[in-house]
Amino acid sequence: MRLGRGGRLAPCAAGAYLGVVGRHDRDESKAGVHGADAPRSSERAHLARLAATAARGGVSRRKAQGAHYTPPALVDHLVAEALVGFRRSTTPVRIVDPACGSGNFLVAVARRLAARRGADMAQILEHSIHGIDIDAAALALAREALRALLPASTTARRRAAVARALDAHLVHGDALSERAWRGLGSERFDLVLGNPPFLGQLKRGTASTRTRARRVSRTTAGAVKRYADTSAAFLLRGLEALGPTGRLGFVMPLSFLAAADVRSARDAALERAMLRAIWAAKEGLFEDANVRVCALVFEAGPRPSPPPLRRAFGLEFKPLPDARECVPTPRPGDETWSPMLADAFGAPSVALGVEEGRSIGSIARATADFRDQYYGLRGALVEDRGAPAPLITTKHVDLASNAWGACDVRILGARMRHPGVDARALSNTPKMLAWMRARRVPKILVATQTKVIEAWVDEAGDAVPLVPLITVTPARRADLWRVAAAVASPVVAARAVALYAGSALSAAAIKLSARQLLDMPLPRDARQWTRSARELKRASLARTPAARERALRAFASASCQAHGLRGRELAEVLAFWESRMGF
Q: Where would a tag sit more exposed on the chain, N or C end, judged by fewer CB atoms within 10 A?
């Protein structure tokens, strides 16, 4: 994502958007610093051309390049945070955006620097501003926007010098290749700012070619692996370019905080620099891209006693409480970074403090199937009210409930009310037949992308799960309902939000992998655990909504007590869970 986009803020009379100024930079705000300009007609036209031009993989060039306007308020916030307490290590200060697009970050930082006492805009543009982008037309727009910052009193001679400098310092190329960086000179940079392209590697249109994938791996010393979004590679390359006390401020996909595919990239980032500030929001900021984002600020250089992490959240960039005491600052080796914003995403404070002992994985195993199993069912689907092997989808599964036969689902292009699997049709595919037999055992089916952990118990073992359901099988059949109660616990839901917020498709949803589910703690109080299992089973047998709700409330209370919660902590987790259940 490179080209800055006008967000939801009201335009000023001058045609610019009044950005949110960082709380640490009020003096600069009085000096007239504001955000990037509203999208110019030339920018809109350029994006329209990209959208209308086909690229590899059958997608538009715009999607293939990850080209989207960055909302001015986000540009302003990130630039302000990157400049908090900033002390330049070189004169003049050196700034680069490695995916600069039309230059909104460069424009914003140039304005802020020029607002400081004694600063000269022409000198800043001539000596401080650098950028890289693969889109030559976007670079032309960036040069135009930067030249427009020059005061009206600037002489023709100085304008020409600035134009020559911008022609040389805004380089056409790929920031993941060393050739582009050599075009900027060999020096390190004091500020690296920007919004790199978000290019997922699971879709053909945005996946890297083999050549580029090898380059990414080489550039990041193997830290960015096969399925990691390309933005992680830009982050690590930008950190590598920092000077001794340099700062990096990047917009990143919110999934960067928790996705397993970028865990090694997160570790590599912390080995190169210290995280100084973080922002995220539940809402999406990009009207033309279905993605939620966060903003991260790193600082290079040793710091024996690091300052507390600065945190902000939401579309208004509201500061959050000091993180020194209440929120763990991430370290290399941490599974996720989501705990930094767990409170902002609504996780109860006790979610990360539950005493851990044995995990669910000590008494059960879990697996999530893949697309091979999904497409392997082609030709074996049947519509049968009395199907001996009913096919269960995520849409069917609710907590202690199964809606098979009560709603329509679409599978492999067919709409079905009573989907089933005909084992005879799989006789020519031994792997699929073996898979089906392995799944038809007493088990717990767990839905993904849900507000709580929704688990349904298949006591008979007849059902066949459809991707992306997680199948949990207890080591002992007698523990079926106890394992189900452990999996569906409000404590597990709270920890899932705290540990993996941002990894699901929607802000309110929980997404767990099979391994992550198995790593969750088991209850420690056997009596309350057994009670919670009994109430969960009672809820599954309830004949009225009221009876079901009473049983589920009793299950939740017993489950939390089984994890040792009492008093305020118990009330906090129950309130969290009940609100998500809609009680």
A: C
